[in-house]
Amino acid sequence: MFHHWKIIFIVAIIKLSFAQRSNYLLLERLKTLRRKVNLSQQDLARNIHISREAYSMYENGHRQPPYETLVNLAHYYNVSVDYLLGLTECPAPSLILSEEEYKMLNEFRSLDKRGKDATLAVLQFEYHHQLMQKKTIPQKKNAHKKDDSNILNSL
Fold this sequence. Notes:
The chain is an all-alpha fold. It has eight helices and no strands. Helix 2 packs across helix 3.
């Protein structure tokens, strides 16, 4: 029986320490991001449509921002909510894929190694082909400039 309570106690401590760490990271990241864009608490609060007092409480750890405010802050700073909460070290928000991109990604993931290699080869070929087209269009317009078509064709 004693062993059971000991495990529960340890789990509770771990959960508490994670919550404290998450709260600490949130307020530190809020301060750092705000200072990075060189704004006062008043200016930032105005930009995300909350009071300065409310924002100050979030930044000083006296209150937790509601979900809507976290989302607004993440959008404002162009970071993910996960980053604000300390769940990731990567500040970039997740990529938003179109339905077509999502379908392509799922189909790509279902391919074997040969299929993935072939798909990547076609993708790289098409990507470089379009880059070359973009580079050759200005040259056709500026025919009086040095002709670099031999250099482009050798690539």
